[in-house]
Amino acid sequence: MGKAKMGIVINHSENIFLLQTRSNSYAFGIDDQGLVRHLYWGKRINEVEDFELPVLIEVSTNDSVYEITRRVRTRRRCGLIRAWHTALTP
User: How many other C-beta atoms lie within 10 A of the C-beta of residue 20?
Assistant: First the structure.
């Protein structure tokens, strides 16, 4: 079996980035507020065009969505980021 290419794929028009290893991919984007947004982590994929940044909505808490997002950036474990992202998207 040949080696799969590793690298970075960029969708410039949507500010979405896809980082790839031989077996995994991580997709993230930069929204219009300049926030880094997690989109995908898992089995290797090749198409960055399949992603779009979901609109941030307020959640049922006293904190604004921007406060929650700021806290996400301080977390160090991917599992926590995935859990917070899931809570932010409808």
Answer: 19
Strand partners, 53: none
Q: What CA–CA distance (Å, rounded) separates 46 from 50?
A: 9
Q: How many CA atoms lie within 13 A of 39 on its CB side?
A: 25
pLDDT 10s digits, 13-28: 999 999 999 999 999 9
Instruction: For residue 26, give every residue at least 6 positions away whose Cβ sits within 8 Å of its Cβ, in sequence order, or none.
Output: 18, 19, 40, 41
| pTM greater than 0.70 (yes/no) | no
CB-neighbour burial class of residue 16 (10 A; exposed 0-12, middle 13-18, buried 19+): buried
